[in-house]
Amino acid sequence: MRRAEEELWIHDLHQKADLANDRLFAASAGTQLVGVARCSRHPDGCEVDGVYVLEEYRHRGFARRVMQQLIEECGRHETLYLHAKPELVEFYQTMGFVIVRIPDIPDTFRHATIHPGNETVPMRRDPARLSGGGYV
């Protein structure tokens, strides 16, 4: 986790992970860390954010790989929430996320929807509605 944080997380978001509530997942190409995603535990669910792949490694399946790790570890029995860029909605839908209305998400996860100029789409992945607990 420390290496993913130092090499990618801080590079992308300029922030450190909260070791008490965050889990970082990483994808690598050989010894090079090329992708990272964070899952943060909140009182009313888990939030996925900071899915990031180095530009030169995009469109090669690394984001999918890191999200599959995150879903397996954090979303097997927990509902996951995220705010997707509009161009990534289809990508997250392939992993079982659905678009939700702002009133249908817990208060904890509304912080990303209330900023002016925010162009994200709130999404949720509920393992109870997916057959066999896997992603579609």
Could you explain the architecture of this structure?
The chain is globular and about 40 Å long. The chain starts with a helix and ends in an 11-residue tail after the last strand. It has helices spanning 2-13, 62-74, 89-93, and strands spanning 22-29, 32-42, 45-53, 80-84, 98-99, 121-125. A hairpin with a 2-residue loop joins strand 2 (32-42) and strand 3. Residues 7-14 have low confidence and may be disordered. The chain has three helices and six strands; from the N terminus they run αβββαβαββ. It is of the alpha+beta class. It has a six-stranded mixed β-sheet with strand order 1-2-3-4-6-5, with helices on both faces.
Tags for this model:
136 residues; alpha+beta; Aminopeptidase
Annotation, overall tally of beta strands: 6
- Give the CATH topology: Aminopeptidase
| CATH architectural group | 3-Layer(aba) Sandwich
**What gross morphology would you assign?**
globular
CATH class: Alpha Beta
Beta-strand content: 25-35%
Residues in helices, as a percent range: 10-25%
Q: How many distinct folded domains?
A: 1
Give the class from helix and strand content and strand pairing: alpha+beta
| Order of strands across the main sheet | 1-2-3-4-6-5
SSE sequence, one letter per element: HEEEHEHEE
The overall pLDDT, averaged over residues, is: 79
Low-pLDDT residue spans: 7-14
The CATH fourth-level homologous superfamily? Gcn5-related N-acetyltransferase (GNAT)
